[in-house]
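Can't attach files on this board, so I'm pasting raw text. These are the components:
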Amino acid sequence: MPKKSFRQAVNEALRQEMERDPSVVVMGEDIAGGMGAPGEDDAWGGPLGVTKGLLARFGRGRVLDTPISESAFIGAAAGAAATGLRPVADLMFVDFMGVCFDQIFNQAAKFRYMFGGKAKTPMVIRTMYGAGFRAASQHSQCLYPVFTHIPGLKVAIPSSPYEAKGLMIQAIRDDDPVIFFEHKAMYDDEDEVPDEAYTIPFGEANFLREGEDVTIVAIGRMVKFAREAADQLAREKIDCTVLDPRTTSPLDIGSILESVRETGRLVVVDEANPRCNMATDISAQVAEQAFDALKAPIRMVSPPHVPVPFSPALEDEFIPSAEKIGAAVRSVMAAPARRAA
Amino acid sequence: MQLNRDDLLRAWREMRTIRAFEERVHTEFAAGGIPGFVHLYAGEEASAVGVCMHLSDRDVIASTHRGHGHCIAKGCDVKAMMQEIFGRAGGLCAGKGGSMHIADISRGMLGANGIVGGAPPLVCGAALTAKVRGTGGVAIAFCGDGGANQGTTAEGMNLASVWKLPALFVIEDNGYAESTASAWSLAGDPVKRAEGYGMPGTRVDGRDFFAVHEAAGEAIERARKGEGPSLLHVKLERFFGHFEGDAMTYRAADEVARLRAERDCLASFRRRVTEAGLLDGAALDAIDREAAALIEEAVSEAKAAAFPRPAELLTDVYVSY
Amino acid sequence: MPDIAPLTMPKLGLSMTEGQVAAWHKADGDKIAAGEEIADIETPKITTALESPAAGTLRRRLVGPGETVPVGALIGVLADPLTPDAEVEAFVEEWRARFAAEKAAEPEAAPPQPERVATPLGPIQVLEAGPAAAPPVVLIHGFGSDYQSFLLLQPLLAGRLRTLAVDLPGHGGSTKELPGADPASLARAVAAAMSARGIQAAHLVGHSLGAAVALALAEQEPARALALTLVSPAGLGPEINGAFIAGFLAARRPRALAGVLAMLFADEQAPVGHEMVEAVLRAKRLDGAEAALSAIAAANFPEGRQAHSLRRVLADPARPANVVWGRHDRIIPASQAAGLPPHVKVTIYEDAGHVAHMEKPDHLARLI
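---
Top answer:
Structure tokens for the assembled complex are below.
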């Protein structure tokens, strides 16, 4: 099977869905690039080249460059979705949600409920997240917990190129607004990705490996680190389950609980800041629903409660690593077994 | 654009229905039957009706928190609207939206909106749909003088102009953003803002249905021909407070009474059509009685209607989840 | 036999580069018969038993359970009990040195890759391996599977035969537009793939539904089928396990699917690995795959019965035919092998289930 990068996987998903469905349009700042400028057309294909080539195939009518005006075009995506298109809007960096969040959480997310089930808003917002690019505090955040908090939104966070293509096609075909998180440090990751279109359903966690000792739940780029940690731990005879929820809304809490009931130990790895993130949410749900199954305290591996720093020396310290995950797993293995009540 | 007798009767019926609806909601709210926040459109009827007379179901409007008039002018069911305002299961939004979120997508009514300045970006999207699909439809954003100062309005106008969208921005300037005078808060001239975004801007007197109708017609025609967006700055009057329960201490003591006497768009319309011999008073009176009866029925039905079942709390969040 | 025989990490599948010794079933000093199961070998795709290549005494286990080593690496030594330890030691040293030298000298050849070939019925994915001039064998998988069904068998044949494993329409990397869902229609796609590869006639090896497809192909184009080897074939009787078909169609998660796939094997302990389960799930997610599989299931196995009988095709005594079954087949009962014409060679494996080509690949390779 052909190996493709995360960037190619997303591009292929967009291209195939645009070919399949004429109501799919893409829009965003520099989504083609060079609009109105004397040089090349399709100069950028998105800031990191993800949408390169769509312009030549689908033309200006469906590949829409926008002014730097997130409120206007994210809101336009919502209005277009509510009236019959399937727009995919590129909110370049999720950090820019601050200038357009009303259009997302007060408008798109709430149409269906406020209008008594008579509206559907099939839009996708693609957005880059995550640290590791030396991009500092305003271009590196993992704000998916904020979107997960909002009823009416779905949140997909693919952990590999294969996942990215299948989840993107699902997102485009989905009738609800979907926020699609792409980790900027993963675009060159490669994976076997089928040429054909396929969908990965939302709300079904992926078991990447199954072990008996500890359940590691990891999100997005952290899945890769969790697998590395699990490989190392296997050499130390610690047998881990690695679970990728794929979507934080809907969240497959059922699979997480099922796994924790088997292993009795849980480590949650989340690149988002530690207060009210996915790790706290998942931990709370497990504590509430499977407390009796826990043999050790839950451990959360997240960055500290600080903005993402610029200096490589600080940023590397900020990001959760396979080593930190390994240490957390060893600590729950070392915790004295709880006395029976 | 020439208005025939049927058009004039229709315009009167819609404006009269809006006025009767709002006057009655005012008294019902005071009596305690209506939950939540309510913002009334009485005094502004010529704007909604003058614009929406040009539209059909393929056209889309997005409204404001003061949206009842736009809903009625765009063809929403009046009885279902009343049930919605009373929070009943048979409401236009099944009782989940209320006064600030009445919508009927099937009629091209993309919602009243609780967020000031919410509509312009949405309307860019609706106009884009019309353009991509080649429906010939137009999309219209209503916002107030308060909403005119939101960044979303500025961004929406710029995008609509850059994308050359079939859109119209209607600034309904009723003199007050909540309790703050637009004379103070609206810097410069909205018509010149339009010029700044490369689109035609026109100021019209919202007391004059015919002026609104004509100006809107030109702008909508231009949009349908693919010539891009326009702006309409409608100067009009708000006969009630910002919201129901507003004591309006910021207004002059006799201000509302004077406006009702001098600047009522309904009175102006009636005088114009009867003096010109286009319609007779009896025909208009008959419509008044029908509008009153419709609202009476709407209120008594709404009061008798069932509330949503508790299980409805959890439905309609997603298409699938 | 030589005094000392090596046990090496087998190549389970054309793309396997390393494997893990999951468990030893024998201890140092145990006497072993040829063909006896000595250890379990595990890859991310499948776990399978290592059968002893020779008789002897297990003198050394060189790789502990859980250890992963490259294909071809020495994992144990068999020898006569009287062979001195020093000789065994020397054998190990010499083997290891030679293996390391060979590895260094000869970089691993890239494994053959599946290709999508254009046919008038749409793209058909094939995996070809073996010398182009050798007699051809076409491998046709069963319901819901793909060319990887022959993961273990194909490498054993590819040394001496030109092997072409074909993904049926609706399956794997082939078109999801069915030319029809019955065996005769699916057979046209196999014929089209053979033509596209310049193979006019071949020994057809079919498993389960693929066996019915092979029979249908032999019936509609007799010259294409030089011989038939049918593994747990569909088309010979009415019974089939409807729960398996329904469970396969319904399963969307790895665990559920692993449970269904376990029914294929005689062992309750499913030997299918995470990667194999994931590959099946990924194939099911492709656009059109679920609809195609449902249509094939409905056309061939409605309500837990087989809709098509192709027994008549085996009547021709001029065409050599093997029918192979596992006694513990839980999908199509081995009793359907009864009553076949005398020229059909029937082989029943006492310790196999529905997938003898995965459970007994060496025996099956010798039959073909």
